[in-house]
Structures are given as C-alpha cells and as structure tokens.
Amino acid sequence: MPDGMQQNDLSAFWMPFTANRRFKADPRILVSAKGMYYKSAEGKDILDGTAGLWCVNCGHANPKIVEAVQQQVAQLDFAPTFQFGHPKAFELASRMRDMFPADLDHVFFTNSGSESADTALKIALAYQRARGQGTRTRLLGRERGYHGTGFGGISVGGIVKNRMYFGSLLAGSDHVRHTHDLEHNAYTKGEPEYGAHLADDLERLVTLHDASTIAAFIVEPMAGSTGVLLPPKGYLKRIREICDKHGIVLIFDEVITAFGRLGYATAAERLGVIPDIITCAKGLTNATIPMGAVVTNKKIHDTMMDSADAAIELFHGYTYSGHPVAAAAGVAAMDVYKEDGLFENALALEPYLENAIHGLKGLPNVIDIRNMGLVAAVELAPRSGAPGERGYDAMVKAFNKGLMIRVTADIIALSPPLIAEKSHIDDMISMLGDVLKEVA
Ligand SMILES: Cc1ncc(COP(=O)(O)O)c(C=O)c1O
C-alpha cells in the first residue's frame, strides 16, 4: 500500500472501466506528473506511453497551461453561458474555427467526449427537422465504434459490453460493418490498402431503412478506444459520397484524433475528407480541465439560426458549457500546439514510431502490428477461453517496468504525448518488447 493510503481508502471510489477488485488488491497509484512521465506512489517514474488516456498531447504540467488555469480561476472562476457570456469561451471558439478545416465554423461546448457525441447526434436531429426533414430520426454508427457512454453514444456505438447491460437503447439506431480485417491487412503501416468497398455497407442500411428515415452517420476516422482500427484507403471518401447522395449528416468523432494525434489539427484534414460535424474533447484542453466540443459547418448552424421557431435556437446545453477555466486551458493548449510545433513533431516522429513498433513482429503471441500518426497498436492472440487476460497481464507488467500502456482486450495501444522524442520511443519499445517476451 502506498504511503499515506489506508486499505480502506480504496473502497469508496467505484472506478470507471476498471477491474475494481483486482485493482484494489494491487493498486497502481499515480501521484504526480511532468512532461513525459508520471510518478507512482512508490516514487517510480512511469513513462507515459498513452498521453494519459489519449489526451495529454502537450505533455504533463505544461507551464503555459498551468499558468493560464491559475490566472483564470483567480479572475473568473465561473460564469454561466446560458444568456450570458465571458471572453475566454468566445476566444477559444474562434481559435478552434481557425484551426479546423474551412467551413467547420461553429463551436458548441460540452464537458467530455461522451457529451460531445450525444450533442452532435442531437444537433443532427434538430437540423434535419429544421430543414423540413423531420422524418429523419435514425442514427447510424459502426460496429466496434466508441462514442462514449451516454445513451446516444452507446446506441450508435458498437462495443458489445458497453451496450448489452443497458437495455434496448435508442430506437432506430443501426450499424454498418467495421473495417478491421487481419486476413487482408495484417501488419499495415498507415491506411490499409484493402477495404474501401466496406463503405458500401452504408448503402445497405439506406436500402433497408430508406434515406428519408436517416438523420446522421457517426464514425471515428481512426478508431482508438476499440483497439486502433485504421481507415482503409478511400473508405471515408466513399462514406462522404454516400452521405451527400442521401442527405445524411456525416459526423466524425475526433475525440482522440483531433489536436495532433495524426499530425494535423484533425483527422479530417489529414485524410482529406471533411464531415459536417466534428466532435472533440481530450486534447482540447490537454485534459487539464475537462472539456469537449462539437464543431459544425455553416449550413447546419445557419439553418438552425434561420428556421428556429423560438427565441432559443437549440434547446440543449450544460451548466459548464464553455467553462471559463476550461476555456483558458483550451486557449493555452492552442498556443502550445502552435508555438511548440507539436502537430509537426507528431508527423516527424511517425516514421520512427512506425519502424520501432513493427520491429516487435515475431515476438510471442503477436498477431498484428499497425500504426498511424502517433498511434501504434500490437494485437495479441487471446488466451484460449480467456479473452483480454493476456492484454491485462501485459498492462500490469508494463506498469511494473515503468511504462503506461492502454489495452483494449488483447490489443495494446501506444499514443504518447506529442512532445515525445526518439529516445522516449526507444524506451517504450524496449520495455514493451520485454513485456511481450514475458507474457505467456
Ligand atoms: C472516439 C471517442 N468518442 C468519445 C469518447 C468519450 O469521451 P469521454 O470519456 O471524455 O466521455 C472517447 C473516449 O475515449 C472516444 O475515444
């Protein structure tokens, strides 16, 4: 037990997405962080191979962000954004507009990725109604998609455990097939060659339900939390064409990919496909203060403004939408991304990470390695009858060696802060390689 913590201290906190009983029997407690490293309660440096939870893109305790937060909390701790305003929220929205692809011009603030997903789905429904297409109430997603844990997000999401315990979910949601295919695409570097045709599965749903019932399709351009699923070449372009053809709002869930994870402000920019709405969170404030956002194009925004029949155009929002301290952290993060050239750093480091991670091919139980931007994944064969156990063991062993990795079942993901240097990649791969040799 770490210093200062009694055994009983651990019992009250019901931990999210955690094997609580296992954790509390053998806890991994983090007490401070700086740059690329956490410090464990035992005083050990833990190299952050996952930017926390895909979110600390500028590295930990960046001085500019820390100072901005300290100043803001002393100056204006809270102000409502329902019928009032404060400068930082407007400033951050303008900064995001300038950073995001042209036409994605209007920013609605939330507090998390889950709220961003649900907000985007609601905006799509309200927009369809505002343009006289009120029969369009269906929301479509993709198998294995992750859009957080709200009822909207899990309805369009496609991860079985996130759905199966929680009732019948939103009526009318449906899913296209996912694109993960190790038979054709194992050991892919960047976008897989095979699988553009899987976009046509969206046509199947249009044929099944009729376009007049479909409001929106939400997809992660590169799916992270579900185990790093890369978009096949041409897939998203085809999705865009099908959505245009049928009047379906296309939402990219960029909670992980926005703010440099793929070397650009957005995956949309990197992949050359522009959706109608982008959701984001995580890197928006470097995770220093929780915040998310939904960025919509002009057409959606202006339609809502022009055709609303009440003084309030969108009956939606959160007490903390555009919270001043979060907004200050966001503005500072935008400065850091730009001034420190972090997107460029991610892009420059991508080939090095790619080369290093693919060097793990051939180690025990490895069945795939894939990468894009500053994201790399190693997929392990599941143990017979015990899926996820091998991945869990790898996560624990890595922590004990001084490396934080993220596992989704038996898929290991690395997504270091964008401040990483080659030597950090070397250390990550070396520790991960040792872990893979030890995990039976
Ligand atoms: C694509 C995507 N959408 C939504 C979410 C949910 O974000 P949050 O945990 O902030 O609610 C995540 C979290 O990892 C995500 O990866």
Describe this structure in words.
The protein has 440 residues and is of the alpha/beta class. It has two domains: 7-58 and 341-438, Aspartate Aminotransferase, domain 1 (Alpha-Beta Complex), CATH 3.90.1150.10; 66-339, Type I PLP-dependent aspartate aminotransferase-like (Major domain) (Aspartate Aminotransferase, domain 2, 3-Layer(aba) Sandwich), CATH 3.40.640. It has 16 helices and 15 strands. The protein has helices at residues 20-25, 51-54, 63-75, 87-99, 113-130, 151-156, 160-164, 182-185, 201-209, 235-246, 267-271, 298-307, 324-339, 342-358, 389-401, 422-438, and strands at 30-34, 37-40, 45-48, 104-110, 138-142, 174-176, 214-219, 249-253, 277-280, 292-297, 366-372, 375-380, 403-404, 406-408, 411-414. The strands form three sheets. The chain has a seven-stranded mixed sheet with strand order 4-10-9-8-7-5-6, with helices on both faces. A four-stranded mixed sheet has the order 1-2-3-13. The longest helix has 18 residues, at 113-130. The protein is globular, with a radius of gyration of 21 Å. It starts with 19 loop residues before the first helix and ends with a helix. The mean pLDDT is 97. Bound molecules: pyridoxal-5'-phosphate (PLP).
